[in-house]
Amino acid sequence: MFGIADYPSFVVAVIVFLMIPGPGNLALITSTGKGGRRGGLACTFGVIAGDQVLMWLAVAGVAALLTAWPPAFHAVQWLGAAYLAWLGARMLIAKAGDKPVLVIKPHHYFRQALLITLLNPKAIVFYMAFFPLFVDPVRHRGLLTFGVMAATIATLTFAYGLIVVLLTHRFAERLRASPRVSGSLHKLAGVFLIGFGVKLALSR
User: Which end of the chain has a smaller Cβ tally under 10 Å, C or N?
Assistant: First the structure.
C-alpha cells in the first residue's frame, strides 16, 4: 500500500510506540494537568511536530549518518538525558507558590513537547532504525510513500493524544480540590523524569 511494507503492521507499531511509557507521555499528562485541555492539545501538537522532524530527517539520510558515526547518536542521547533530568529536578524542588515548571501557556507546552520528542532517544531509535524497515524497496513511491507514513503517524498521534488529554483532564479536575495530592503528583512526575534521564544516559 503506497509502497509501505505491511501497512497494518506499521499502524500497530506506531500505536504500540505511542503507548510505551516515556517522557512524551509524562509531558502530555503533566501539560494537561497544568494547562487543561488547551495545554494538553498544544503538547500533543508539539509531539506531532517533533515526530515529523525526526521522520523527515530519517528520510534525508540521518539514519545512515548515525549508523556510520555512533558518537553522534550518543551525543544526542546524553543531551536528551541531561534535559530530562534538569526538567525533573526543577519539578522536584519546586515549592508551593513557585512558578510552575510547565507554565500554563499553550505555546510553552508546544515547545516543551517538541524538545522532549527531539531529544528522546526512544523516538530517535524508532525513526532512525525501526521506521525504515516499513519502506518497501520494490514498490517504494518516493515522497508519496513517506507522505502517507507521515500522515498516518500524525493522525494516530493526534487521536492518542486527544484520548489521553480528555481522560487526564477529567481526572485532574478532581485533584484540584486536593492541593496536597496535586503537589505530590507534581513531584512524582519530577522523579520519573529524572529516572527517564538516568535510564537514557546509561542505556547503550
Answer: C
Q: How far apart, in Å, do the first and last CA atoms of the chain sit?
A: 35
Please state, in angstroms and as integers, the Cα–Cα distance from residue 166 to each residue in 59, 130, 169, 202, following that order: 33, 30, 5, 34
- Read off the pLDDT of residues 132-172 as tens digits, 9 standing for 90 and up: 667 776 676 777 888 888 899 999 999 999 998 998 887 76
Q: Give the whole-angstrom CA distance, residue 186 versus residue 31.
A: 11
Beta bridge partners of 135: 4
Domain boundaries, the chain: 16-202
Q: What phi and psi values does residue 60 have, to the nearest 5 degrees? A: -75, -5
86-144 pLDDT, tens digit each: 777 877 776 655 555 544 455 678 988 898 888 877 787 677 766 666 777 667 677 78
Lookup: cell for 102: 510547565
Residue 188 has pLDDT above 60, yes or no: yes
For residue 88, give the 3-state DSSP assignment: helix
SS3 40: helix
